[in-house]
Write a structure and sequence with these properties.
The structure is a homotetramer. Chain A contains twelve helices and 14 strands. Chain A is an alpha/beta fold.
């Protein structure tokens, strides 16, 4: 299968290139980088020194000519334009930006505070979370890969809302992410000496991922869900841990049963104890643990992913595997690093 | 003023020694370490190489003979016995364990799952948070220095509960602490390779500090407060950031007005933006910021302290300053490190 | 091919288990752990939650009965005994301790300050560095996998000494290693709060790896090499960077030509710039860069590896691949992590 | 004493502001920041929230009018111009750039590859290392504060060269620095995700500090010293550890005796073991340890400082204390942080 990657040198793009490099079913035809066209991938990420690629400028015709699948890893807003041109070709598109995650352009435009550049594609695109939309993904022409924070929150909450086990109001998602989530951007707050030994919250009550989480959980619950979502920046490279609070009078057995929807999922593990970031870093896994607080009629759920893998590049590849009829785990079944 | 430190070589004890070493009004008479008696402080913490102390075995009579103030930095449970003996002397005692923070021994015994060894002193002891109990502290013979997590949570919430601005139910305290909070203990989960690049929650729905926070907030609110408290372990050395959620319909002005109780406090700053751990690390400050989410009728408060200073040794010294009539900021007015 | 791992739960053993889990040619028959027999691998390293193993107590007969290759990851000293029993069976043994890296038991005994428990095997064992001993490895019954620091130093220096391009005296190897190199041991200096934001040298003039480096470089130079080796502990998990100084009047062309011995090596890259730890972390690669200082007639070489992979588990698997006639890169050709 | 700081918002400038804020003898009249004039110090470094300053644009006349001491924390090259104007006033100047550390403008121009803008002041300026030039500092009108790496290297080597105990050729200084040493500059290689879990060498055989180290050691040795200096970037914020190699046949006693020159120095400690960065971080101390390798006739010296304090701002204040007749340790005698 011939694939191309547009935006190969951001952090998510580079991680996608890394995963695709050892994927047995694909051949990388074009690795596109606006900033570094003409250079080698190993000039930008020296870890590619033993398996290199030449970066190209964007030439959509050339890409369309020989690509079956195109991954687009562009900033939101700019993605819509490129994707709408690719969409006209035979290629199927897997977009890692926020632009094709929404059903309702107005919702996107409100939270992203920008016009949507390709509204007509929103009803074609599929929200690329295999655990929720596996069948639709298989036949999709365009995928909007879920956001990193939403992946951790939705996988934890959707089964409980679908089963009617937690209250729809009062949900709080307190998430903490590694710094790769902020991208490879030369901004002062991302300097080592600013992040190291520090920890901070940001985007209180306004972070865009709130709307994405609410959209999918409202579908799961079949009623409107609104919730508090607070992201934080961890002084680590990879990983998201979301601590989630919801009011419930459900029993341990009921909760456990609701999570059985994941029994056959290759990349979701509901564990007995509490997951930690290092349990999933380097893998495509989402690990979920929880504790019911009978004293307060509340459940506290802890959900962990690697933001660059299950939260971005790995989930994108999982989508591709489904779309192309490959083994869903191909290229993704490595054990996490722990160390 | 002659002071002694019992338990000088744990992380809180060592920090206390560091602060006291540059305190102008005190003379350290005895630095007690069970494990390292006879050694020098600089054998255990080489940073003391330019200002050293000889560690001694515990001899309560010797301590009582020449100490005006005794700091006890012992594990909870063991502290009660030592403190009750010190209490008989002329010395005033500042205890950094949990043993003298409670009014009700039963509450302590339930959450700490152990017998209290000196119940008779509980009504003598003062909860050592100057912002709440300044006058009582001045005359106290025995202080229970507040816990680190409780300090961050109580300072953030007490004024709002006292003013009746937030709902008493539905409060959630999601706290993240640096690893010094776990003490200098050679346990596998505290190894560098286990903590580094990791993040985890622990003690869900059962952490002991829950009871301490609830005790003080119930007093502030003049009604029983129960809440969810979830601690997490950050891969940094120092600092606590608590993200706190409460339901409210109060206005910005009301909240701001309630926090004016801190206007003259030397060590609490209510800031316009959001505080980060590096804004307070190395200082005795508590920085508080907040955002009202009108969409959800909820306030999100972010409260930051240095767990070893305002959360332990610094607050202990602040208590001493009040008890001895020193300038309340003596030894504590250094600017945080940031770097 | 049936393989077994003795010592599967130390850091090197766990990394070996991780690599072997995705190796296409092998089947893990026995994963042995003295401390955790009966538990699951995922109880000890939760990253194995999606691909688990049951840990067993050591039963050498059982292992010999069905293992073609046995990896031994035991502390030096204790390894010799187990290996000598395995050696009697049909199994071929790949030992990750220091016990079978030496030709001369006296050298081992002097630097390790202990008796060697299986001297008779030293002349059977092959020093498992494929770049130096590929042919001998293929037919070996017993491999002593090189140490982590020695791998970084020997790969950098052997070609230059073999070509007579640098002086044999005056060589200095200043090495810096991530903390996994110290193993999963609950010692105070390995606690997070002791290692984080710190850096230190240790073992000056006495570290055991000095003798291993000198042994192999003396063979390469065909004359006795003695050198200064100083290890340091980095506040990171993985990776070694060695900065190496040697006196030389050789030209850039001569040095470059000497390093051409690595042109066909799959896991050694001589790069134009300077390698960094993140260029190789997560891979089996050794990246080497250098600068000739004409002013001082000295060459400075920088050599980087992942201490757990090329410095331990990966190199062990590379040896197995050669011994078993597999593709030498099987299980090892993943791109490093960078992030 | 009235002082001003030009360049108050770089990392060294901010550290200087922090130290001066608790210095009992000084009053900060002007804190100058080109980029942030008009803002508050706490807008840039929120740790100043409890002790704030208003940042001003550069007005040399205003500064000269009321400042006894002016600290200049500007990039090399730009410093010379400002300093030469200040030099005409009554103010005494303490410059933290490289511009006034050299006796010979040609040496500066060669290594810094730029014209020197105020050559006429070089013979007026004093190299601000109190351990070498205390008396000259007291009367100086202009100080060139030593570089961070040079401070660690010169303090370790000068006494041994002065005593003729080590060979003048063959010296190697392998230094490792925290990332604050690179300044607050928004460059890609300084991003958290690039520095974290990484380690690298840079500037091999060409780093400018080589010339500064050689200049001062040549004076100490009274013969020309050339040496290899290799800096490395540590994934920590603060601290430098230099591992230094020199050929010697001197005895332990001879070395120890040579270091007795530091017996009365308040900020240099020669220790029995090996110093680590955390032994000095947060303090103005330089800790030196060593080991003689009799096998190789070589001494290995380990020298540690906090690069922002003894390597920059602290040493600058130590100079001021001498120039103004204050206690040399005023504002600088705090114990390091360790944690």
């Amino acid at each position: 299968m011939n694939i191309s990657v547009i935006g190969a040198t951001g952090y998510a793009g580079a991680e996608l290139m890394r995963i695709l490099s050892s994927h047995k079913e694909v051949d990388i035809k074009h690795a596109i980088s606006k900033s570094f066209a003409g250079q080698k991938m190993s000039d930008i990420y020296e870890s590619f020194l033993a398996c290199d690629y030449t970066l190209e400028a964007l030439d959509i015709d050339a890409i369309c000519a020989d690509s079956d699948i195109v991954f687009t890893c562009l900033p939101h807003g700019t993605s819509a334009d490129v994707v709408s041109r690719l969409y006209e070709s035979k290629a199927r598109v897997i977009d890692l930006s926020a632009d094709f995650r929404y059903y309702d352009a107005a919702l996107y435009e409100k939270w992203y505070n920008t016009k949507h550049g390709a509204k007509h594609l929103l009803e074609q695109s599929v929200y690329g979370m295999p655990e929720l939309y596996r069948e639709q993904i298989k036949g999709a022409k365009l995928i909007g890969v879920p956001g990193c924070y939403p992946t951790s929150a939705i996988l934890a909450l959707a089964p409980l809302l679908a089963a009617g086990l937690i209250e729809s109001s009062g949900i709080i998602v307190d998430s903490k992410s590694g710094t790769t989530g902020a991208g490879r951007s030369t901004k002062l707050p991302l300097l080592f000496c600013e992040v190291d030994e520090n920890f901070k919250a940001y985007g209180l009550a306004t972070h865009r991922h709130t709307s994405e989480i609410e959209q999918e959980l409202s579908i799961a619950a079949d009623s409107e869900i609104t919730l508090s979502f607070t992201p934080h920046l961890l002084p680590i490279k990879r990983g998201i841990l979301s601590t989630i609070y919801a009011n419930t009078t459900a029993s341990e057995e009921q909760i456990s049963k609701a999570y059985e929807v994941y029994n056959d999922e290759p990349f979701v593990q509901v564990v007995d104890g509490l997951p930690e970031i290092k349990h999933v870093a380097g893998s495509n896994n989402c690990a979920i643990g929880y504790k019911i607080d009978k004293r307060l009629n509340r459940i506290i759920i802890v959900s962990c992913i690697d933001n660059l893998i299950k939260g971005a590049a790995g989930q994108a590849v999982q989508n591709m595997n489904l779309m192309c009829g490959f083994d869903e785990t191909e290229g993704l079944n490595q054990i996490g690093w722990y160390l």
